[in-house]
Amino acid sequence: MARKDVPPRWDRKMQQRLARGEAAALGEVYDRFASLVHSLAHRVLSDEQDADAVTREVFAHVWEHPETYDPQQGPLRSWIAAVTQRVAVQRLRDREEPEQPRREELESEVRRASVAARADYIAHSMPAPLRAALDLAYFQRRDYRQTAADLGVTEDEARRRLRLGLQLLSTAHDTGTPPGYRGAV
C-alpha cells in the first residue's frame, strides 16, 4: 500500500517523461485526461468550440510547461483539472470583456438621453421671454441685436435673456433633477 505523501509512480514518471520532451508521454496524458479536460471546460463555458479550444490550450501548456507540475502537491489529474479551470475561466472572462465597451456605450446613450430630457424640461418650463429669445437665436439664427429688434426690447435686455436662458439650459448636464421637477409620484 502506497504512503499518502508519496505521489503515484505513474504521475512522477509521466512528469519526468514530459520534462524530457517525450511526445509519446503527451499522447498518453491526452488519452487519459482529454475527456476530463473537455468536460470541465464545457461545464464552465457551455460551448463546444470553446471547450475544444481550451482542451488544446491545456495540453499545449502540459507539453510546454511540464515543470510546473509538482508530484508532491498532488496527482497529475488534479493539476490538469486546475490548469483547465484556470484556462476556461480566463476564456470566459475574455469572452465577456467585449461586453464592457457595449455596456459603456449604453450608459453613455442613457446619459445623453437624460441630459436631453432635462434640457427639454428646462426649455419648456423657463419663462416665456427667455424661451422666445433662445428660439430666435437658436432656431432662426438671430444674433442678440436681431433678437432685440424682433422682441422689441433693448440689446442689453436681449443679451440678459439669452444669457439667463443658456445658463438654465447648461444645468441639464448636472446630475441632479431640474429645479422644480417633481417627477412621477
Structural features, described:
Helix content is 74%, strand content 0%. The protein has 2 domains: 8-96, Rna Polymerase Sigma Factor, Chain: A (Orthogonal Bundle); 101-171, Winged helix-like DNA-binding domain superfamily/Winged helix DNA-binding domain (Arc Repressor Mutant, subunit A). The model is unreliable at 176-185 (pLDDT under 50). It is rod-shaped and about 100 Å long. The chain is mainly α. The longest helix is centred in the middle third of the chain and has 27 residues, at 99-125. It contains 8 helices and no strands. The chain has helices at residues 9-20, 23-45, 48-64, 76-96, 99-125, 128-139, 144-151, 155-170.
Q: Radius of gyration in whole Å, from Cα? A: 35 Å
Question: Total domains, how many?
Answer: 2
Helix content: over 70%
Query: Can you count the beta strands?
Result: 0
SS class = mainly alpha
CATH fold title of the largest domain = Rna Polymerase Sigma Factor, Chain: A
| Biggest sheet overview | none
> In percent terms, what proportion of residues is strand?
under 5%
- Summarize model confidence as the mean pLDDT: 86
CATH class division of the largest domain = Mainly Alpha
Report how far apart the termini are.
76 Å
CATH architectural group of the largest domain: Orthogonal Bundle
